[in-house]
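Progress note, project year one: complex with biotin.
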Amino acid sequence: MNYIHLEEINSTNSYLLAHPELEEGTVVYTMRQTAGRGQMGNTWESEADKNISFSVQLKPTWLAPKDQFLISQVVAHAVWYAILKPIGLQKVASPMVSIKWPNDIYVGDKKIAGILIENQLQGNKIAQCVVGIGINVNQEVWHMGAPNPTSLKLIGVETTPEKVMHDVTSTIKEWFNLAQYDHLRKDLIDDIRSMYNIILYRKDNLYPYQDAATGEVFMASIKEVDPQGPLVLLTDKGETRKYWFKEVKFIHPNGLTKE
Ligand code: BTN
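Model obtained:
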């Protein structure tokens, strides 16, 4: 993988989007991202020299745009594993690490990493896919209203931002290299989809959710996430409901609604 270190940049995603000519596998990273972008136009706060912000260039022309949620699943799994690994190695007593649908990484009920994937389509192909990842490594205080953040440091893990990034990028690279091969792809995809469903935040038991359109609050358990991305909930009344991103809010244990 080709790593480009930038001393400071507004957004590593914006940098790669402006450089589609850079080869697949290029990683752009910085410890000083000044205007990080989050999902749905939100900002991503990252204190200088504490956290790492990086983006990976992918060109998955083998993947139909209708299946692009698979990229989210692979990347979320890679970040999940890179967070879990030092917790295990350092024997830190930590709450569970999980993926909050669609692709936030949580420790207990707190967010430790965020992912922003931006695709450029050409006809029926994904010509450029910029995978942006922000991981809270050593930050301890947030000033811009990030909802329920945490960091590796706050849960007692000692590591360097670069090490965490390398763990993430090497898993992503390995998976996308293997997926080039037609005869391996189906098994890889089946594995990642089932693994993603197993490590979901709130996978078991009933929790409160809010329908974003009607405001209705209801209790439900997660049945699964469909391959194309929607969350399938099973309500306490036995009704199955399917929601796309932003159509349903998770009610946080402290009573706040969360996207
Ligand atoms: C979110 O949870 O809202 C997504 C946050 C994504 C942040 C990363 S940091 C690297 C890359 N560059 C950006 O501007 N955003 C992503």
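The pocket of biotin is lined by residues 11-13, 33, 36-39, 42, 44, 53-55, 104, 114-116, 132-134 (CB under 6 Å).
The helical segments are 12-17, 69-89, 161-179, 182-198.
No further modelling is planned for this target in the current period.
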